[in-house]
Amino acid sequence: KNEKWWGDEGKLDKFTYRYLEDQASLNAFQSGELDATRVDTKDRFATASNMGEGKADIRTALRPSNYLVTLNGKSPQLEDVAVREAIMTGIDREQLAKIRFNGLNYSEDLPGSFVLFQTQDGYDDNFGAEVSFDPEKAKELLDEAGWTEGSGGIREKDGEKLSPKYVLLGDDPAQKAQATAIQKMLKDIGVDMTIQERPSSDFSKVTTERDFDIFQMGFSSTDPFGVAYFDQIYNSESELNKSGTGSAELDAKIRDLQQIGDPDEQIEKANELEKEAFAEYGIMPTFNGPDIWAVTPGLANYGALGFAKVPVQNIGWEK
């Protein structure tokens, strides 16, 4: 313990942090060398859950993270807002969530906002107000946009097939399964989505150069007042808006949003503007995902915390 520590006295004499690869960390937890490790994948969760009574305490919370499908509004095949709407309408988010949460004994409602999470006051299902899974509607939207069925059921316009490129980074099985599922969903509405597999190290290149038509990505939140970051997500000129969608009119409304001083009023206005932003059909929330930890029984104030910040001196062992 540090004699100069200015806070309350700590419950423990010392902490030992170890950085290990995934399998090594799970092995160390099983052997008692670690008192906590993250188990938010199917295999790790199963291993920790089957350690036996009194061996592992499984702690779960909704992780303050956002995972999304991004459509490149600057892409020639996706610059038409009707085509982007059709693609989103043709994607079954429930199926993507089932793939992600398979084997985790976890479920959540489909996310409807990048501003607030469904566990927070003021949250509204803004995406659900604009888009729902409806393959027949998706087909109608493509018909109206001039993309008609050609050979093999694939839609064509002016002799060109509707064949957007989905970029898949890395070799994670769940992400591959999600990409394949989206490919099948879109084929059902006549969209011939191709999958291009690239290494994880290409992330910066892919996003900076917008070298994709369809791309799955994610980001975490550390601040529970997500309205403060509305501009970063939806401003048409923001570096974080990889869809490239938006408008000068919406940007002006976002600037006005930032001037509202009352939090409740600002959240209400943000929900209104987010519905308008989602009507650009550039980004689709897919799931938030669980924060799941296996913890040695009796260890208090550690594990899945959501937005909670536990003072380090309060971590300790139950008496």
Tell me the total number of β-strands.
13
Helix % is 25-40%
Assembly state (oligomeric): single chain
Shape: globular
* Relative strand content: 15-25%
SS summary, helix count:
10
Going by CATH, what is the homologous superfamily of the largest domain?
Dipeptide-binding Protein, Domain 3
Strand order of the largest sheet: 8-7-9-3-10
- Our measurement of the CA-to-CA distance between the termini, rounded to an integer number of angstroms, reads 20 Å
What do we call the CATH topology of the largest domain?
A: Dipeptide-binding Protein, domain 3
What structural category do the secondary elements indicate?
A: alpha+beta
Query: How would you spell out the order of helices and strands?
Result: HEHEEHHHEEEEHEHEHHHEEEE
Low-confidence stretches: none
What does this 3D model show about the protein?
- This protein has 319 residues and is of the alpha+beta class.
- The protein has two domains: 22-60 and 291-317, no CATH class; 65-287, Dipeptide-binding Protein, Domain 3 (Dipeptide-binding Protein, domain 3), CATH 3.10.105.10.
- Helices cover 30% and strands 17% of the residues.
- The strands form four sheets. Strands 8-7-9-3-10 form a five-stranded mixed β-sheet. Strands 1-11-2 form a three-stranded antiparallel β-sheet.
- Helix 6 (173-187) links the parallel strand 7 and strand 8.
- Helix 3 runs antiparallel to helix 5 (135-144) and helix 4 packs antiparallel against helix 6.
- The mean pLDDT is 95.
Please write out the topology.
Elements: H1 22-30, E1 36-38, H2 42-49, E2 57-62, E3 65-71, H3 81-89, H4 93-101, H5 135-144, E4 148-149, E5 155-157, E6 160-161, E7 165-169, H6 173-187, E8 194-198, H7 203-208, E9 214-220, H8 230-234, H9 248-257, H10 263-278, E10 283-287, E11 290-295, E12 299-300, E13 316-317
Parallel strand pairs: 7-8, 7-9
Antiparallel strand pairs: 1-11, 2-11, 3-9, 3-10, 4-5, 5-6, 12-13
